[in-house]
Amino acid sequence: MAGVMVSASKGVMDSVLSKLNDLVCDTCTNLISVSKDILFLRDELTYMNTLLKKLEDNEQLDPQAKNWRNQVLELTYDIEDSIDDFKSNATSVNAKPSLVSKVSNFVINLRARLDTAMQIKDLKTRLHDISDRRNRYKIDYCTSGTTIEILDARLPALYNEADSLVGIANPKEELLNRLLDEDQKLKVVPIVGTGGLGKTTLANVVYGEVKEHFSCKAFVPVSRTPDMLRILTSMLSQLHQLDEMPRAYDVQYLVNGLRTFLHNKRVHDMILDLILRRCGEDSFITVVCEPKEVAEAQYKVRRLSIDIRGAEDATMTIATIDLLSQVRSLSIFGGSNWVPPLLEFKFLRVLHHKFRWSQRRMDLTCISNLSQLRYLKVDGSDIVLPGQIQGLKFLETLELPKAHSSNIPSDIVELPRLSHLIVSCERGLPDGIGKAKTLCTLCFFSLLDSSLDSVVSLGKLTALSELRLECTAIRFNGYGPLLAALSASLEKLGNLKRLFVGHSYRFAISSRSYDASCVDDALMSWHSPPFRNLEQLGLEDWIFSSFPRWIGRLHSLWYLHLGVKQIHQEDLGVMGKLPSLLELHLGTLCGLTERIVIGGSTGQFKFLRWFEFNCVGASSYLTFEAGAMPNLRRLWLAFDTREWEDEQAIPGPGGLHHLSSLEEIQVKGALCDGNTRSEPTPDDVIIWPARIKRLFQAAAHALPTRPTVTYGGWLVR
């Protein structure tokens, strides 16, 4: 956590030093004779920044050094807030030709400069005190010398041989019975005792015997002074079973990685509690359940997370609002419709608000005044945004995942730093989208509702690394020019790493899927794809006449979602050679007409973890040989169940027992009656033949991993 705090201070320190340099050259500050004070702030902070870099190398900081570091960080934040406030007030008034307006603007700007001058003098005094404190307590000496690595006293216990231990058999047996009983409820089994009794040794022995019963496990000793970076790195490396972990990871990256990996798995919140406690100790983030609790904080709140839990009467006192004036990051969740007094958050840089469903519209037009905003995410279906947000010149991310009926600011493409635009709005691309050349992410606009000029302009966004477009038409008839323009634009986007075109819901070859023959010529003619570093490709509802061969050149591709009229053996061979492929979602509209064999000796699909195959019929044509897909964990299959009604027919794919790492089998029935209805009726309920269930259950029992088998679902065709 020390490293995290120093890194945070380094980030704001670099920003402040740059702004102080700009302020030194500002004629406005020279008019009020504060340039010397600014020079002092810059030079003193430069020296302190060097000392902070030394602190970053220390695993264990002296309490005095930690306290001094926190004071420097708080002062740095206040300096940056003062500079930002001055620039905002001094430039927020547009000059008009009239004499009265010019005089009024001069008075307003002069007042802003005088206020800033007083603040700078106060900041200079505080910086003097902090500098004197550093000399008085000799903080510099806290960073000298080498770091001593203290051996955890429990470490030798991890390597004791079980046979050499006395009196461990009965406790071990009791623990094994508790952990491996038939009760599937979550449980915590504490081992309590004084030091030296062998608690760690016992836990390690038990872990060695039970770990084979769990697909997700980790053994993480935690000391009284835990190192969060090491703990999270150890957990992630064990859960992912990686041989080597990059050293560049930080705590936030590791937490995100663990949350992603443990999604849909049953875990305890002990590590989360530990992280929150350490964050509280270092004033890194403040988590409260009601806004009024902020007033009880013993330090300035910079990052605030409020859990409303549906409360409609959330209020803030005047004292609380004053404390919130310096908040830089605000996250509100819990499903409430409470809107905080956003105008008081004049230094806000990050805003994330999750509204619950409501019949009334949520008015957020005031966000146009948050001039320092960098990140804005509003999770709500009916919100009112300002008509223009050009004043948010620092905004980098705008995310509106559920804004189906919300207005989109007309000048959104004029924002000079906008990098990520994620808006699910059921409307076409904004007019003039080609102006937003800083965009790296563009998601969820409707392709077929976009103008031809907007689709052509996509080719100007050469910095794009992620593009997701929605398609909701049943057929592409009449959209030939639009799709041809899309194909031409894609050829210019060489930096793409993620490309998705289709529905946002789960893939199914159905009556909603459409023929992509009108763009076949353009896409199939690519001998080499324009985006050689593509990692994810999802063309969910484009049913190609044949497999695009250029996909075989995407050597960085780990996710592929594709529909083809007919699949052939050589097509599987091309996909099987992709060296990075982890997920393959494949659909065929015409079924299998020839035997498709996924071999084990050829080394194909060596790293594939998830295989989803949607096929109209002839599932028995699909065969897995011994050694096929050696790392496959999840297998999803969808076939027409009526092909199995014939008792003489050979049901299902062959060789399922060869998938040695399989953990999950999901079988879905497909109703191929030619209807075009979008929702199944009660008559569509699939009754699974007993012999089909026996087939998959037998395959599951033949595998050492004992994968789960589930049936159900409709795929309406």
Key traits:
717 residues, alpha/beta, 18-stranded parallel β-sheet, two-stranded parallel ribbon, 16 helices, 22 strands, 32% helix, disordered N terminus, nucleotide-binding, NB-ARC
Number of helices: 16
Largest sheet: 18 strands, parallel
Q: What overall geometry do the principal axes of the alpha carbons give?
A: globular
* Average pLDDT score: 75
Tally the beta strands. 22
Please give the alpha-carbon distance between the first and last residues. Answer: 54 Å
Could you name the ranges where pLDDT drops below 50 across 5 or more consecutive residues?
A: 1-6, 144-151, 241-249, 505-515, 672-684
User: What is the beta-strand fraction?
Assistant: 15-25%
Structural class: alpha/beta
Quick gist of this model?
The chain has 717 residues and is α/β, with parallel strands linked by helices. It has 16 helices and 22 strands.
